[in-house]
Amino acid sequence: MGIDLTGTVPLTAAVVLVGNEILSGRTLDKNLQSIALALGERGISVVAARVIPDDAGVIRDTINELRAVTDFVFTTGGIGPTHDDITAENVAAAFGVELHTHPVAERLLLAYFEERGVEPNEARMRMARVPTGAELIDNPVSVAPGFRMDNVYVMAGVPKIMQAMLDNILPTLPSAPQLQSITVICNLPEGTLAQPLEELQNDFPMVDIGSYPGNSAAGAQKGYRVALVARAREQDSLRAVEKALVDMVARLGGAQLDA
C-alpha cells in the first residue's frame, strides 16, 4: 500500500476537521495551521480544508471526494472512545472495507490500561478498531493509534496528540520544492490595484498573486497599506513578478512602504 509520488510536483493535500464541537464554536481548532505549516515545509500545499460534523454520510462523502483530487488527506478528530467518534468506521466505508480490531493496537491499549489500573471496557477498546488493510500511526502520548488508509491519514483531534502523530508521519512523506514568496507593500487602494493585478496574474499563471490590506502606516497615501504577495516554486518567475509588482506600483503613482 506504499505511495509512490516521485517526481509529482506540486504535491497537494486536504485537511478534514471532524467534530460537532468545532462547528458549534465550543472548541477552537488549532490543528489546521499546524498541519499546513508542517506540510508546506515539505513542499506539500494544502489546497482544501473542511470542517464537518460527526455525520456518517458527510464523513464518507468528504473522504471520497478529497482523496480523489489530492495526493494526501489528513483528518483530525472522531477516533476516541465515545459514541460520536465515528471517523474510523466511515473511512472504512469510504474504501469499501470492514472495520476490524487491529491486534497491535489492541495489545498496546491493553498494556496501557493495565499499567494505569484502568478497566479496558468496550468503549475504550473501540480505539483499537481500524479499517482492514490500514497501517497504524504511532501515538507516543496516549497510545491509541491513528491510521493510514492509502493516501488518507487519520489522526486524533487533541492538538498535542495530533502533533505527535503528525511528527511520525512527516518523515514518511515525499517532498517537493518548497513554495517561496515575495512581498511588495504599497500605499495604493485595492480598487486601483485590482485590474493590473489580474492582468499580471494572467501573464504568470504558475505564480499565485494576492493582495492583502492591512493597518495604515505613516506616509501611506490616505491611510492605505496593501501587501502584494506572490508565491511560486520557480525562482525566476517569482523574481520577474516581484519586478513587475514594483513597476506597477510606480506606474500607478504609488510608493513602496517598509514591511
Q: Hey, roughly how much beta strand do the residues contain?
A: 15-25%
Number of strands: 11
Task: Give the termini distance in whole angstroms.
Answer: 47 Å
Structural class computed from helices and strand pairing: alpha/beta
CATH A-level architecture of the largest domain: 3-Layer(aba) Sandwich
Estimate the mean pLDDT confidence.
Answer: 93
Radius of gyration, Cα only, in angstroms?
Answer: 23 Å
What proportion of the residues is helical, as a percent range? 25-40%
Main sheet: which strands, in order across? 2-1-3-8-7-6
CATH class placement of the largest domain: Alpha Beta
Secondary-structure element order, N to C = EHHEHEHEHHEEEEHEHEEH
What is CATH's topology name of the largest domain?
Answer: Molybdenum Cofactor Biosythetic Enzyme, Chain A
Runs with pLDDT <50, length 5+? 1-8
- What characteristic shape results from the CA principal axes? elongated
Describe the structure in your own words.
The chain is of the alpha/beta class. The protein is built from 9 helices and 11 strands. It has a 6-stranded mixed sheet with strand order 2-1-3-8-7-6, with helices on both faces. Strands 9-11-10 form a 3-stranded antiparallel sheet, covered by helices on one side. The radius of gyration is 23 Å and the shape is elongated.
